[in-house]
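Journal club prep — side note

Before the paper discussion, L.F. wants everyone to see what a predicted structure for a comparable chain looks like in C-alpha cell form. Sequence:
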Amino acid sequence: MIPKKVIDHLDEYISQEIYVQIAVIKGKEKISTELAINKYFNSNHFKDLAEGRPYDHFIEGLRDKCLGKLKNSPMRNKQTDDPIIIELQNKLNKLSDKELDNIYWEIETGEFFTGEQIKELEERRNNLISKLIIKENSKHDSILKIIMDFCETYEKLCQKKYPEAPLPLEILKSIN
C-alpha cells in the first residue's frame, strides 16, 4: 500500500500544477473559471496530464533513487548524526542485494517504496488516464468535475497553509 503521506504529496503537486495553469489562463484571457478550464482542455499541460506524465515523472524519480545503486557507496559506513543518513545506512547494511534492488527512496516525503508500490502508482496513473480521455462529440462533464475537484483540493490546501492568500479561481466560493 502506498503511504498516505506520498499520496497526499503527489495529489498536492498535481492539484497545484493544474490550478496554476488554469489561473494563468483565466488571468490572461479575463474569462470565467469554467471557460478557463475549457481552454485548459486544449493545452499541452492537459495533454501531458491526460497521458499520466506527472505520475511518470514521479515514478522515474523513484526508480532513479533505487537503494541498489548505493550498494558500494562509501556512505555505508561513515559516522554521522543525520537521522536520514543513519536510516539509509541501516537499510544498506541490513538488507540483501536483492532487497536493495527493490527499495526506492522518495526524498520529498522520506518514504521508502517497493516495486509493488510503484506498480500501485502505475495503476493510479492508468486510472487517471482512463478518466481523462476526451472522446469526440461527447460531453466532458465528468472530466470537468475531475479538474474542478483537483482545483478544489488545492484551494482547501491553500486555505489551511495560507489563509490570507487570494484564490483566483474561487472554486470554494462557487461551491458554498
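L.F.'s comment for the group: The chain is about 65% helix and 5% strand. Keep this in mind when we get to the figures.
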